[in-house]
Amino acid sequence: xxxxxxxxxxxxxxxxxxxxxxxxxxxxxxxxxxxxxxxxxxxxxxxxxxxxxxxxxxxxxxxxxxxxxxxxxxxxxxxxxxxxxxxxxxxxxxxxxxxxxxxxxxxxxxxxxxxxxxxxxxxxxxxxxxxxxxxxxxxxxxxxxxxxxxxxxxxxxxxxxxxxxxxxxxxxxxxxxxxxxxxxxxxxxx
Length: 190
Fold this sequence. Notes:
two-stranded antiparallel ribbon, disordered C terminus
């Protein structure tokens, strides 16, 4: 069990609700205040947290994958990679649907294309053709739902997308308390 607390902040309310999770996916509800959320290990899972950066207590769904060697019960520290989709997409483009492990991002944790020059690299777009990697990567993958407005990106005033929860400046004080990861060094290039 890892504590996944809701994000807090003083940003003014901007939206009543984000776009719902895509494709009929039902995410685990936000944990009650002060309680830990159950972390699924070894397959894609969907979780909601409550944020005040997107509006007044708006749920913010995201998918994640925790590889077996990063199981919180083991007490190990693993890096976290945030997979950000495009303006019109959703997080299922990154990790697939909950309960799966077929995404190329997940397959790349334990497999790799053949090493060396390849005259037909497009033949290896499908991870089923990859070979076992010499060692597992051990990276936690997180894919937030960045499409928080119906239809995605809105180029006119009042339709700005809400990325605050996944901004590197937020990460400086955010996820590192929830997962046993070392603090990032974003301040050196922001």
